[in-house]
Fold:
Amino acid sequence: MRIISGEFKGRRITAPKKLPVRPTTDMAKEALFNILNNQFYFDSISVLDLFAGSGNISYEFASRGTVQITCVDVDFGCIKFINETAESFDMPIQTVKSDVFKFLENTKLQSTIIFADPPYEFPVEEFSKIRELVFENNLLEKEGLLIIEHSKHTNLSHISHYKYSKSYGGNMFSFFEMDN
Structure:
């Protein structure tokens, strides 16, 4: 994987093969950040990266100037890799080793963007539970976005607060916002 824009543009990051990850493709990541670039100033937002895996999305935010980034993953190897990579690039990334659902139940951390990339084989009810915990626990800032990455074969349009989806190859991003 590579960082596609910002201070660290073009830098390659190679995660150990033993990590249980499926990094977002460069094409999908570039498309996602083109959408976000039109809505946010990256240096003035906070990001919560759920099911962070290799940290791929967080590195992109950090490269673009975001200074408040928290990664949550249950896998010790993933957390260790994110910490080592963030330290080597001097990126402002905090990590939390935790089950994502337990974290969402207990945290008070509000973020501008909450990005979740759970396993694609999750049942729809698990995707819905992410949305439920984020909105019921008031974890999204007023103008913020919850973005869930999933397979193009999974439909999340029936879940409340859904706004739209964008598909890139086999990846899909569904966007959720507070109702105005």
Summary: Strands lie at 46-50, 68-73, 93-97, 111-116, 140-151, 162-168, 171-176.
